[in-house]
Amino acid sequence: MRLIVVDNYEEMSKKAASIMASQIILKPESILGLATGSTPLGMYKELIKMYNDGEVDFSQVRTFNLDEYYGIRRDNEQSYYYYMDNNFFKYINVKEDNINIPNGTAEDVEQECINYDKRIKESGGIDIQVLGIGVNGHIGFNEPDVNFEAQTHLVKLDKKTIESNARFFNSIEEVPVKAVSMGMKTIMNSKKIILLANGINKADAIEKTMKGKISPEVPASILQLHNDVTIIVDKAAASKL
Ligand code: PGA
Asked: What is the CB neighbour count within 10 angstroms for residue 46?
């Protein structure tokens, strides 16, 4: 695991954006694994700026998002589809057909999960996966558990996740209790991974991810077994290392 400690959120975002842009410049038809949440917002802003300045072209990339809330329609403002469109996709030249986000309202959700993994595999696999991390060490919506879930699956969200995501909703009762998430194998099959974290509330999770024992109770700890992971954190998130 490579660790890059930066001064603040802005630097973290710029560093992540330049890694993503380099990937796309070197391989214009890259398969990007994308994340939602507060953490990557600055990175998306930087990438939009680079696109507007003619530094990066998304016309050939294909994207796969990590997860989506279960039972929420695409046009709902809380959906990750809506988030991606409004924070990134509508400002760049990625092709609509090249965007993949799990369908949280699929009639047969099990089949949707199988199809999602199949689509990733058929694309040739994710070249670079962006990850945030939950305060409980989750990646995607792979919550602490007694074992690792390998494939894309339906998950029951952890109490801590529901509490931390409540800030995006009018009340905690509105936070969905389930989500569709890529599994650990899907994530670990990515050729490169960058994990971003900022703020003191992530310090514990970062310490356990990098220095703790590999355990499904801290899902991100499995990244210790991947051979190309870069962790970019601000000083606060690195404070327990
Ligand atoms: P955040 O979420 O970026 O909103 O802190 C990260 C995560 O839960 O993976």
From this structure: 19
Among the options 67, 112, 127, 234, which is catalytic?
67
**Any idea where the domains of the chain sit in the sequence?**
2-234
Q: What is the mean pLDDT of each run of 10 residues along the chain (241 residues)?
A: 98 98 98 98 98 98 98 94 98 98 96 98 98 97 94 95 93 95 97 98 98 97 98 98 96
The alpha carbon of 98 and the centre of ligand 1 are apart by a number of angstroms equal to: 24
158 in active site: no
Q: Is 136 in the pocket of ligand 1 (CB under 6 A)?
A: no
Domain 2-234, CATH class in plain words: alpha beta
